[in-house]
Amino acid sequence: MQNQFDFFSNQFYGKSLLAETDLTPSEMEYLVDFGLHLKAESKRNVHTKYLADKNIALVFEKNSTRTRSAFTTAAFELGANPVFLGNNDIHIGHKESVADTAKVLGSMYDGIEFRGYNQSDVETLAKYSGVPVWNGLTDAWHPTQTIPDLITIKENFGSFDGIKLAYLGDGRNNVAHSLLVGCAMVGINVAIVSPEELMPADDVIDIAKQYAQQSGAKIEITSDLASGLKGANVVTTDVWVSMGEDNWQERIGMLKPYQVNMHALELTGNLDGKLIVMHCLPAFHDLNTEVGKEIYVNYQISEMEITDEVFNSKYARQFDEAENRKHGIKAIMAATLGSMYIPHI
User: Fold this and answer.
1) pTM for the complete prediction?
2) Where does it reside (predicted)?
3) DSSP type of residue 87
4) Domains of the chain (ranges plus CATH)?
């Protein structure tokens, strides 16, 4: 008996995913469910070759353990051939324009992943390549993190109904922006809990509120920990200083009160109820990294955005979340490039 994921022809085919807003809310939910389906199949060692003989370019201006590993293993499991193009392998924007690079890559590859700095670069790749382009992270958006995060939430709670997510930390970075919009799209109540200086961009808040009007999600942008954390089922965070930044002292001073620690979890009121903790990783929760040791020497802080106690607690789901990067990315690539039938949703 065939299931809903196994037919030919598909409304996603040829689409790029550059930001959450490239999807409708129903498409977002479909990809979450498809990712959960592919994960279940993977646990049975079943890998449908939706992308057999496709060639995938993995363009990385910024390094990443999870994004590179997720796209690579996802491509192999779908039957595709991934080719890594790091910062030393390409001349994008340096000796060759992004548009010219897009045309070259589009003539040789069936799909392109891009992880870098400028949102305009991933948009130009999509405009001129003629093939699906997937945003592995830019300074503006991180949709290939949001879908796996939603997968993690749904596999823990069964649905999004009545769930509240609280994000603590730098509210104007790409992860916060993407979670704010992605949660609003699928009806998850979301609170961005940040100092006033690091609130989400106004235009992103407006986008989230528009989706929330459709989904019924409640949006809260606040600097007040008690209010933002009250009733939260998901507490999540990100590093305080993003790649390409170096203002550690300033950020530590602003964000130390927004650390995900046991007191923060207590403020949810859900310590004995439905509660998980997520982190997109890497996390500065101990002194077992060179950067962590350097930060401790310079700023006398051994745990930053999340404490080791919480990171290793029964609430922690960051490693499930990391694995779900692969399954979410498999869903995205298979839907936008694979030969399969997806009914109108």
Assistant:
1) 0.94
2) Cytoplasm
3) T
4) 20-141+324-337 (3.40.50.1370), 164-273+276-314 (3.40.50.1370)
